[in-house]
Fold:
Amino acid sequence: MLSPRSHGASLGEPSRAVNTWEHWLAPNPDGKTWDVPQVYFKEHYGPTWLFAVDLGTGQVKKQRLPDQRQFYLSGRSLGFDGKYSIVTPGPSGRSSAWGMCLHVSDPATNTLEDRGQIVPDLSGEVRPIVVGPDGRLYGTGSYSNGKVGLTIHDPKLGKVVKNFGPVGPRHRNGVWEPYSCCASQQIISQEVDAQALGMTIASRYNITS
Structure:
């Protein structure tokens, strides 16, 4: 026996001629529902839009994001305060010089705040960030000389409190090297998978001043 035909609800017109590379999950302040920030972009450097979908209220907020930012390859991490930090290289303000820029998504307002460029000259195709036990953001990227960069950003102070600059060996594939980052109470660990060399290079850097 066939069940009666179900008539689903329309989800609207599908997106065409845009890329839907990235979407993230951030918990709402109620601790029960989620925000889903979804990024749409036409080309790699823009124009880019954020559609913040609040699964608690069902509301969707649309926001135009800055051009010349590679959100589709961003590093991101959820902080202890419930805010979602996103880093991606690009110019900032009137300056055409590139560096690592910080954006913060707030589930309470369903908006993405542009905090500007926090580390000059740092970019790279891979730029993971993590939240350490102290609540600070430990971030990476790479420089034009093929070396990895490491930084520490304090959200409470709103600034980078330590920039290690280029560290470790130069990597043959430069900014394309896939690597990850983790932080503990005493060290920041950066692991580079040198696929072309068929081996793994692991380095640890003391974060104490």
Notes: The first strand starts at residue 19 and ends at 23. The chain has a mean pLDDT of 79. Residues 133 and 185 are 6 Å apart (CA to CA).
